[in-house]
Amino acid sequence: MTQSITLRQPDDWHLHLRDGAMLHAVLPETARHFARAIIMPNLVPPVVTAAHARAYHDRIVAALPDGTRFTPLMTLYLTEDTDPDDVAAAHASGLVHAVKLYPAGATTNSASGVSNFDTVRPVLDRMAEIGLPLCVHGEVTDPEIDIFDREAVFIDHVLDPIRRATPGLRVIMEHITTRDAVDYARAQDDTLGATITTHHLVINRNHILAGGIKPHYYCLPVAKREEHRLALRAAATSGEARFFLGTDSAPHTDDNKLQPCGCAGCFTATNTMSILAQVFEDDGALDQLERFSALNGPTFYKLPPNDATITLTKTGATYPAHIDTPDGPVTVFDPGFDLNWAVT
Ligand code: DOR
Ligand code: ZN
Questions:
Q1: pLDDT < 50 positions in the chain
Q2: pLDDT in tens, 18-74
Q3: Which residue's CA is minimally distant from atom 2 of ligand 1?
Q4: Directed axis angle between helix 50-63 and helix 20-31, to 10°?
Q5: How far apart are CA 164 and CA 178, in angstroms?
Q6: Are the C-beta atoms of residues 17 and 315 closer than 8 Å to each other?
Q7: How far is CA 11 from each of CA 162, 179, 287, rounded to the nearest angstrom?
Q8: Domains in the chain, number
Q9: Sign of torsion, CA 92 93 96 101?
Q10: How many Å lie between the centroid of ligand 2 and the Cα of residue 339?
Q11: How are strands ordered across the β-sheet holding 192-196?
Q12: How crowded is the C-beta side of 288, counted as CA atoms within 13 Å?
């Protein structure tokens, strides 16, 4: 029986680090295991220009614990006022690795996102020209659409039309949660990638709602039926190049989670690699963990894989229930099963 596995050091292709005291508290959790991460720009105010991204990059680097090597890969928040020249310059300088599309109102701090997708056409055309990927939060915001259908409707009504109108645009379907998204992704050419979170491999909607409401399992897109979770597991463990890890680790203090209207987000930075090793082992696919967490992402982003390695051993893993921050504790995602694999 396998007792130890060594992988190229993983990267996280979708991460929320926030800012200020929260950034200082959560950054070490990611930097302990991951070499790089795509940093989400949904701060208040959002990271919309190259200048904002440069300043945020520098705050992240300054917040790293001494001696830690970690590279933040910056993104820009797409608004209806985004300037294609600013985006192109930010990409050319090597600072910005993707642009993030939030449909306005879809999730945390998305108010400055896009309502009329025609307004961003010049930016998308320029991105297609220069090969800069678009990270997409794929949910419609129409209140008439059931929240469990918002991803599937987005694919048909928004994503596919955008891709048809902008040939060559490289797109990442982020944090996919449905069989529909897996099927759509598989039917496309190699301009399309898809990230899958740790928590969506573990929970379905019953985990959130059955037997009492579990605010720490509430995130967006919300977890769906079991059949969808199983489709995500099959995609992640398949080794297929278009599927890779984006944890969407999204810290909120317990105060902000445990409210009559609580925030969306699961904080998985601390124990993601142990959970993934368990998931992949349970599915008889430990040999695909490196592809999912360390190889497929760099290939899509046209970056080299990391030279360093990490080793996981089957010695049992423990993790803190909370990360302390000056604003209050942030609860670490509890997968609901014991973790056998420790990062050593
Ligand atoms: O659950 C989520 N939390 N989904 C998102 O899209 C945003 C994120 C956050 O920023 O908290
Ligand atoms: Zn996110």
A1: none
A2: 999 999 999 999 999 999 999 999 999 999 999 999 999 999 999 999 999 999 999
A3: 265
A4: 70
A5: 22
A6: no
A7: 28, 24, 17
A8: 1
A9: negative
A10: 24
A11: 12-15, 36-39, 71-77, 96-101, 134-136, 171-173, 192-196, 243-245
A12: 21
CA-derived radius of gyration, the chain: 19
Ligand 1 centroid to 252 CA: how many Å? 9
Torsion of CA 153, 158, 161, 163, to 10 degrees: -110
Instruction: Give 149 Cα–ligand 1 centroid separation in angstroms.
Output: 18
Whole-number pLDDT of residue 105: 87
Comparing CA positions, the residue from 250, 286, 253 lying closest to residue 269 is: 250
Q: Pick from 92, 94, 112: which is nearest to 104 by CA?
A: 112
Q: How far apart are the first and last CA of the chain?
A: 18
**Does any ligand 1 atom lie closer than 6 A to the CB of residue 42?**
yes
| pLDDT digits 0-9 by tens, 16-31 | 999 999 999 999 999 9
- 164's CB contacts (< 8 A; 6+ apart) are none
CA 123/CA 41 separation, integer angstroms: 17
d(CA 128, CA 267): 33
Identify the burial level of 165 via C-beta atoms within 10 angstroms of its C-beta, where 0-12 means exposed, 13-18 middle and 19 or more buried: middle
Atom of ligand 1 nearest to the CA of 265: 1
- Greatest alpha-carbon pair distance for the chain in Å reads 56
Residue 263, domain extent? 4-343
Domain CATH number, residue 224 = 3.20.20.140
Q: Which two tokens stand for residue 146?
A: 């059931």
* Separation CA 142–CA 152 (nearest Å): 13
What confidence score (pLDDT) does residue 111 get? Answer: 85
